[in-house]
Each structure stands twice: as C-alpha cells, then as structure tokens.
Amino acid sequence: MRKNLVAGNWKMNMTYQDGLALVSEITNMVADEVGGSGVEVVICPPFPFLHSIGKLLTAGGNIHLGAQNCHQKESGAFTGEVSAKMLQSVGVEYVILGHSERRQYFHEDNELLSQKLKAVLAAGLKPIFCVGESLETREADETFAYLEKQLKEGLFHLSNEEFDQVTIAYEPIWAIGTGKTATSQQAQEVHAFIREQIARAYDAEAALNTTILYGGSANAQNARELFSQPDVDGGLIGGAALKSRDFTEIIKSF
C-alpha cells in the first residue's frame, strides 16, 4: 500500500563510530518528535555498518534498515560483492537499486537492474528502484521518453504481486549533490507521469498504491513543499541524511 516514506542514503560516508552515533541521535529524535505520525523511515548505511545499526533500531518500530545495493546472484565467486540473501540475514528490509551513481560510475544498465530486482524480491526484501534523467536529457526535452524506457526495461517485467513490493524514487540527476532542486511543480509533473506509466503497465489500483519518492537534493527547507504535492510520497535523502537534525526535520515535513 502507498505510504509516506523517507529514506536516508548515507552513500560512502561516516566511520563506524560516527554512524552509530548518528543513528542513535536519529532514533531518539524520531521517537521524541515524530512519534506515531505514520511516516516510514529507512536508514541505508554502508555495508559494514548494517548489522550493528540494525540492532539499534527498535523491532516493529517505524525506522527500518536498508542497504544501498546488492549483487544479482544469490552466491558464488564474486569477490567484494554482497547478495540479497546476505542482506536479509542481517535484518535488512529495503535495498536501493539503480541509483544514478551506480548507473553512471558502475555502468549498471536496465537489464542488470531487472536481474537485481528479481534477486531482492526472491530474498523477501523491498526494492527502492531509482529512475531519473541527466541535465542533457532534460534540456533536449526527452525526460519522459527516457524515464519510460527505464521503467519498461528495468521494472515493468515484474508480476503484479512482485510490483506491489516496489517503491520508486525519481532522481533528477542534475539535482543530486549540485545544490539544485527540481521545483515542486517539476517534481509533481514527473511523479504524475510515473504513476500514469504504472497504470498503463499494470492497473489504476497499482498506480494509486505505489509509493514514489523524490530524490534530488531534498532538504529540511524544501521538503515540506515537495512532499505537499499529490504524487510525491516522500524522499530519498542524501547529504541531509548525514545530519540528525536535518533528517528529522525532513521526516517532520509531513
């Protein structure tokens, strides 16, 4: 079912000690200031921190453990890689897939991501599947065609039952780490388009029930306006997720 959700992607930041301190601050602030607001929170630290941070999160609470990536195979001779089954075994619930940095720096394409989706779902985990266009694509007025291709090739091969487990994150690549942010109207326009594509690929009910996050330099100052848009259900947060006060204020924006 569609829900309000805020996910913090720490990327390759924080030492182990700093990460434990940050998540302790966040859990305390959320408990004191957010309470039973119904907002689901996901924290996605680097792989080495997952088990320890997961132990700090209250079982059954509204803060959940997520990972930033996984391999498409269940096991094998893939040195340095981590499988979805491994993530599940240490308490991970969500996995980010197809982040723009993975697509750009590690050349992950739609075909590979479709395999990763299957692996994540087979392990009983929930994917946060990222789509988004570059500045060149937007300026060429090809945003919608580009997003449609990402969705069709990477995501829409799933069955209805599998798709029910998916959260989508729209990342305008030109607004990640640049300080630029899509206007609330630009975000709403793209989120509505994604929902329309879901309705075409599946049905109106699936479109209505899919959580779609905004993931382009959302912060404590602009989150309220972004999240007020009818098709924006929350955020995939980068830099602001590394500051407990900023991250908590974003959660409170609902």
UniProtKB/TrEMBL annotation:
Gene3D superfamilies: Aldolase class I. Its EC number is 5.3.1.1. It catalyses: D-glyceraldehyde 3-phosphate = dihydroxyacetone phosphate. It is found in: Cytoplasm. Keywords: Cytoplasm, Gluconeogenesis, Glycolysis, Isomerase. GO terms for molecular function: triose-phosphate isomerase activity. Pathway: Carbohydrate degradation; glycolysis; D-glyceraldehyde 3-phosphate from glycerone phosphate: step 1/1; Carbohydrate biosynthesis; gluconeogenesis. InterPro entries: Aldolase_TIM (IPR013785), TIM_sf (IPR035990), TrioseP_Isoase_bac/euk (IPR022896), Triosephosphate_isomerase (IPR000652), Triosephosphate_isomerase_AS (IPR020861). The active site is at H99, E171. GO terms for cellular component: cytosol. CDD domains: TIM. Substrate binds at N9, W10, K11, G177, S217, G238, G239. GO terms for biological process: gluconeogenesis; glyceraldehyde-3-phosphate biosynthetic process; glycerol catabolic process; glycolytic process. NCBIfam families: tim. Belongs to the triosephosphate isomerase family. Homodimer. Involved in the gluconeogenesis. Catalyzes stereospecifically the conversion of dihydroxyacetone phosphate (DHAP) to D-glyceraldehyde-3-phosphate (G3P). This is Triosephosphate isomerase. It comes from Hymenobacter daecheongensis DSM 21074.
